[in-house]
TrEMBL record:
InterPro entries: NAD(P)-bd_dom_sf, PRISE-like_Rossmann-fold. PANTHER family: 3-OXO-DELTA(4,5)-STEROID 5-BETA-REDUCTASE. Coiled coil: none annotated. Residues 64-364 form the PRISE-like Rossmann-fold domain. It comes from Panacagrimonas perspica. It holds the Pfam family PRISE. This is Nucleoside-diphosphate-sugar epimerase.
Amino acid sequence: MAKKKILIAGALGLTGRAAVRHFESKGWDVVGLSRRTPDQAYRDLDGKATYIAVDLRDPKDCEAKLSGLTDVTHIVYAAVYETSDLKAGWVGGAEDFVGINVQMLKNFLDVMLKTATSLEHMTVFQGAKAYGAHTGAMKLPAKERDPRLISVGFYTPQEELVKARQKGKSWSWTIVRPQMISGFATGAPISCLPGVGVYAAVCRELGLPLRFTGRADGPLEAVDVDLLAKVLEWAATSPRAANEIYNVGNGDCFCWLNVYPRIAREVFDMEYAPPHTDYLSVVMADKGGVWDEIVEKHGLKKYPMDHLVASWQVVDFFLHYGDRNRLSLLSTIKLRKHGFHECEDSEDMIVRQLKQMQAQKVLPA
């Protein structure tokens, strides 16, 4: 059997990095695309993947960098352009948020669909914003068969573009809609957990207890980025996943108020105090110097705070994600009925991943 070759767009981000690790571990040939180079993104990136720095916004750069990838059999498209004010992009389409993301995918497909003549499958990412999680209260639980919303977003035009290009072709597509993706990556705009860890470390360094700063006391869902990578392999190789859309989660719910005491006790060995609503985008804005001192004191890898936490605005968003007036809960029963059955305890995942960041010298023990 010929060896499979997968092209991962957005390979140095949260999801892409996990996908690279997973497919490498399964013996696939892996090519990763990113605007950044591996040396710019990470201090110690290893593995056998080939990386190509390309700006998907530029059709000429796509043509020059991608036209030689003739033997690609599978694609994971996890690339995204985010605006400087993420909420303004999500809700109002600021900075041509929709147009740029659609054009990026078009530029990519224009090259790869004529180049990769043996293409078998392509996975494209969406998320809970497909159900309006970013704009207001949504139907619970959200299911893949729910009617589309008219809200601003690039998911629908990207989906229609992929479907139009696939019509009459032998390759297939799968769309995944994960809940809050949890794991570690640098410079990832939609990432929460490193921010939680940095905030806890700064509080401890300042002699303060850990407090939950969000507004939410209700349930929310997450997905372990490594579990998500397994879903990507299943989608790439399972005929049942052809031309289907799947919500993806760990399979349970959790509450921030329950896990924060565990973070204090089990991860950082610090005191926990009652919650106090605050905005980390405000209180952490001047804490870069404190973080630099923590890095030196504990001999951590020299990541500036803004490399670990690309957007405190996003961290605040996810810490408010369990607001009982605006719950975001997705049914994942379709994925499980179609054949993917793995699951994860979300509280245990959060504690484990923070400890892994400590072991990797990203966070202080």
